[in-house]
Amino acid sequence: MADPKVDTLAAAMNSGEVQRGEISGFWRFLERVGDVLYFDVHAWDGDRYVLALTCDGFGEEPIRGLFVDPDTRQCVTEAWPKGNEKFAGWFKWEPANFFICWPGDRGGIEHHQEWRAQRHWKRTVNPLYQYLEFIRQCLNLRGNGYQPRKQS
Amino acid sequence: MPDLQLHIAEHGRKEHTVGILFDPDETLKTLADRITETAKVDGHTALEVALGAAPVDESRCLRDVTFRHREIKLHRVCVEVHFETESAQHWFPAQGHWANVHRWACKTFMVAHDACANLELRDGAVDGPPINERNDIGHADECKVVWLVKPGPEPNG
Q1: What is the pTM assigned to this prediction?
Q2: Same domain, B89 and B61
Q3: What does the alpha-carbon distance between residue B3 and residue B20 come to, in Å, rounded to a whole number?
Q4: In what order do the strands lie in the sheet with A36-42?
């Protein structure tokens, strides 16, 4: 008998909005390893970063996002997109304290317990798309302060 | 012989050619404006195609730039941009990037540079799917409708 939670995640991956984002070139699904999804996410300058999304308890618990090395899949500071002070408010690329500081991220909620009550990831029918869309905006809206690798 | 030759194609119309002369001492901006006026297609984007580079620094003098192509074919496509309560139409080369539409719209609707950086293009409606501005505008038989919008701010700690 199929695990309904696995089916929910598969349905989210195959949803029209996630597929459309891929067709538009904002992200590209790489692979799924257990509950972890790997995506290439693209910035406005064309640079790509590998985002690992841990989705255990999908729909019930928030996703945990981390940027990882494309080859080793290890979370290292070089794998993280960098930016100005505003951008650094979301992305914590300091070694030993990697996390994404956003109410829809599990790591963000661990650092801001008060966010759990917001249940940000429950405000959508597709938490995977919600997460990818947040990353898209951070990397593509120039006002959010992402800086291309050659400038940072 | 003109310095630049633009072959303008458009859905349902016969291709026509526009010749452009320029002075080496004029800037890319004055040339872009003249192309827009003469060829009825976005001059900045046309220069990106001719120079084979983006983005174009419009303050540069023509004597300091090298054209990759002196003769280009541009397929004109109409884009209608909505912003708040306003809207405007403009013609772009189909091979131009959507970033050019964003740039033109901010200029047309007099959006300050800082504010422009917080806006994005949406396809068809204010809540339509986001448009990747690195993608080509592409061909269309009718005017493409897009919205310039400000997404809601994402909180952080």
Answers
A1: 0.91
A2: no
A3: 6
A4: A27-33, A36-42, A48-54, A64-68
